[in-house]
Amino acid sequence: MHSADDRRRGTPFADLARRFADRLAAVRPHGDVHFVRPDWARRNVELERDLLPTPPADFLRHPSIAFQMFVNERLLPHELPYVRARITDERLLAEPPVGGPPTVPLPGSDIRTSSNTVHQLFHLLRYQEATGWRIDDAATIVEWGGGFGALMRLVVAMHSGEPTCVIFDTPVFSAVQWLYLSAVLGEERVVLHHASPVRPVTGRVNLVPIGLVGTTEVDADLFISNWALNESMAKAREAVVARHWFGADSLLLAMHAGDPFAGTVLGAGARMVPIGDFLPGQQYLVA
Ligand SMILES: C[S@@+](CC[C@H](N)C(=O)[O-])C[C@H]1O[C@@H](n2cnc3c(N)ncnc32)[C@H](O)[C@@H]1O
Q1: Which residues form ligand 1's pocket by a CB distance below 6 Å?
Q2: Which of 3-16 are b and which e, b meaning 16 or more Cβ less than 10 Å from the residue's Cβ?
Q3: If pLDDT is split at 50, 70 and 90, which confidence band does 8 have?
Q4: Would the pTM of this model clear 0.90, i.e. be above it?
Q5: Fold category of 12-286 in CATH
């Protein structure tokens, strides 16, 4: 595992924020309206409107992010003990201040964490327990719908090597991921793609707007999509299934228990794992 200090060489936020509009302009042409549900299209318009011309320092508090990606703190008593019992370095729980996320003190320590960081670590650790695979086993990891980049930040932190990471998302979220992950990891570790064909850079976090999915050359070991591919249009799901999960043998998806897409994922060899009584009606699908 990398030391937390290794992971804290971020690029200054003010420098990135000044260049955000240019980065967004580069990826904006690479959306795909056939992939995006109307509710996400609306959130994207609102997010773009409010982040331009320069994103505020507390951009993670925007409703399109905060209400969708920060879970309620009532999950903490259920997830935090599980996570703490399994990690060897509690600095993994430290919440970067980038974006002004809501934080809580980690009991018995001087670390501030967040319900979201605990929730994302919980997913990764439950995946490891359910499959017997480790995040370390995956050299190339593809995520569909990565929010602001919280899970991929933790994948990088947990991994003992330099994994090649790819996140597909809508253009404004690809730009937000560039802003957040560059500020946390350092801009040199993040690549925002804006032209075909997309050849992910080895050992970096590659951000790919969904309009470029068809020309992305990637062979994944692990495919992740938590509450995202099921929130995309059927055409997006068909594209991912037609690509055989980008070649991944191992899968981690999360969605509502009644979601009709679950049948397709089970058909691909995944099995269903209920998240827990504290989050009724939600499930992981893992392989
Ligand atoms: C509910 S959020 C979940 C984010 C993250 N996976 C998590 O669990 O916190 C849904 C994510 O899917 C993305 N998304 C929505 N429609 C999408 C589409 N058609 N293609 C790719 N990503 C999409 C959103 O931008 C967002 O990043």
Answers
A1: 35-36, 40, 68-69, 144-147, 168-170, 173, 210, 226-228, 231-232, 236
A2: eeeebeebbebeeb
A3: low
A4: yes
A5: Rossmann fold (3.40.50)
